[in-house]
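Task 17 of the worksheet. Students: predict the tertiary structure of the chain below and write it out as structure tokens. Keep your answer in the requested format; marks are given for formatting as well as content.
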Amino acid sequence: MQIGMIGLGRMGMNMAIRLLLGKHKVAVFNRTPDKTKEIAKKGAKAAFSVEKLVAALKPPRSVWIMLPAGKPTDDMINSLLPLLKKGDTIIDGGNSFYKDDIRRAETLKKADISYVDAGVSGGIWGLKKGYCLMAGGEKAVCKKIEPIFRTLAPKDGYLYCGPAGAGHFVKMVHNGIEYGMMSAYGEGFGILDASPYSGYLNFGEVAHLWNQGSVIRSWLLELAEEAFKKDNRLTQLEAYVEDSGEGRWTVQQAIETAVPAPVITASLFQRFRSRDSNAFSDRLLAALRNEFGGHAVRQNIGKGRR
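Model answer:
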């Protein structure tokens, strides 16, 4: 098949390469031209504007967007809208909020343009291992572009999830679960690190051990093993963790539908906590203990919020 790819970041570039390896015809556009030129050497058709990308594709066109969620994706869709024709399809492979997908699908339907939301998991390893794909939109449209999905995904790594928004909804919950799993691993290794046995343990070896038939084995543990091989106590890293949105949306959805999600919620708040090494709330706790019980406090000279 032919496909247009907009956005050649950490995932977009490798996805385009995987499609080329799968013998698809790929036209590419990136805001900065260097990456466009780089992948053109691998066989992609380079386009240095959105207009040229659309012109490089034969109708009916399929254009895959791999951009940050929210305004950047909306702006790109608005740029594509006057250029595309009836029967064309826009695929959003970023981490968009599912309610944005529903809105976009309704808007594009008025112009007879199809919209597919594709939740994508696999990170920088997807080129080699394939990407787990969760698609939402009209079933017939997803079926039409299924060869693209099948090339990007490993065996059994693609699922049609339902109408507009379903793909990104399933991906949202996937990422919420990921937050909880990562926090549990972090807490476990933190307990090991503070234990009397810490000096005897190589954490890379522990992670490797736990992946040999244990009930907590996972790809995340494989990645932990690789990280510990580089730095067994992660001393070169700062304990600062960002969140990309899906964890927040998962918690919001849990609240809207009254589904208890204490683990995912706590893991999201843990990420917030990581960004403040001198939290005001903890300073107040120390002050209160000092006021009511005369407990000792530590003076914090020259240190404040990040």
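Marker's comment: The longest helix spans residues 166-193. The first strand starts at residue 2 and ends at 6.
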